[in-house]
Amino acid sequence: MTDVSIPNYDKNNMPKTTKSAVLEKVFDIDMKDTKLKEMGPTDVLIKVVAVGICGSDVHYYDQGHIGNFVVKKPLILGHESSGVIVAVGDKVTKFKRGDRVAMEPGVPCGHCEACRTGHYNLCPNMQFMATPPVNGDLTQFIVYPQDFVYPIPENVSYEEATLNEPLSVGVHATQKLGVDVGSSVLISGMGPIGLLAILAAKAHGADQIIVSDAEQSRLDVAKKLGATNAVNIKNADVLDTVKTLTNGVGVDYAIEASGTVPGEQTSLHALKRGGKVAYIGVPTTDQTPLDVPFMTDHETTIMGIFRYCNNYQTGLKILAKNTKLVDNLLTNFYPLDQTKAALEKSRTDKSNSIKVIIYPNEQLRK
Questions:
Q1: Apex CA 315: angle with CA 44 and CA 205, to 5°?
Q2: d(Cα 180, Cα 146) in Å, to the nearest integer?
């Protein structure tokens, strides 16, 4: 793996500020020195090496809000990240200086009912990076609790480790659905989450993985990752294809990651009787019509997927087994001071970009 420089910091010699990419308002990114949080006894100081741009970052950049989450004051974007530990608190037991790590971007309260019953992703007090008003990690350094930091496997690069955040969503979906050995799965929408859901479905034993999207370049990547059939919705009907491939029965499971109304409906109707669908993508409309007679007649199980819970380490293990495959998703690389250009690339060029990476410190790839 590529080596990066490790500053000589400790608890008595900590930086006070960090250079950050700050969203001032819609389409306005500014480079600023922002205040660094004081390190507590169980915190670590991380030099952020790589950050992946997520669709949510783009939405905050060009829309200023996602649902009820509104950017009301300057916000540091970014939540798909990896880095190296450069200092540790007095009571840190899991890590040492020089450890390569990935950061799970949501820190729950640990006390509410959701947290106490093992569903911390539903914590109403969640502090999730780059979700207003919580700052993200498009910054050179970040102080973070050791309990939400995970070692990067030796054969996984910093850039590949950033993919663990979207991969963990797919892992959560496959686990909630109960995807099992020999099963069939439809995955709708080949953005990074949909693409990485292919690896999650494979890891849980799926035998037939049908994917759909309107971008042929992304469907080509999906085939490389292990999709058995790829449907370009511009040229073919997804439901007809699913019926043909499953002898008219339908798939066991569906994962909807496109966030489109047609995708939401198609994923439901592609199910066999007794099938299960997980909705990851969020449509821009307030409500999505669903076929209730179909659901009752087929006794379908429908579930929403919100981020992930207790599977960040599982995602890293899957990445470690698929490094050559996931490298196909890493398409564009920018330094921190070109964050606006990186966001524009992700926003406007879906044919030629899948995962855009920003380097808050030294640039490792061009």
A1: 165
A2: 33
Residues 140 and 171 in one domain: no
Hey, what amino acid is at 171?
V
Residues of the chain scoring pLDDT < 50: none
How many domains are contained in the chain?
2
What residue numbers bound the domain in which 344 lies?
A: 17-152+322-359
Residues 4 and 84 sit within 8 Å (Cβ to Cβ): yes
Instruction: Give per-residue pLDDT as tens, 28-40.
Output: 999 999 999 999 9
Task: Answer yes or no: is 316 within a domain.
Answer: no
Is 70 a domain residue? Answer: yes
Q: How far apart are CA 228 and CA 222, in angstroms?
A: 9
Interhelix angle 164-177/192-203, rounded to 10 degrees, is 50
What pLDDT was estimated at residue 2?
A: 64
Q: Would you put residue 40 in left (φ > 0), alpha (ψ -120 to 50) or beta?
A: beta
> What stretches of the chain show up as alpha helix (H) in DSSP?
55-62, 113-116, 158-162, 164-177, 192-203, 216-225, 238-245, 261-269, 292-298, 312-320, 323-326, 339-348
**In the numeric block, which tokens belong to residue 79?**
């939540």
Q: H/E element holding 46?
A: strand 43-52
CATH code where residue 111 lies? 3.90.180.10
Q: Do 147 and 209 have their domain in common?
A: no
Neighbours of 180 (CB within 10 A): 13
The CATH number covering residue 271 comes to 3.40.50.720
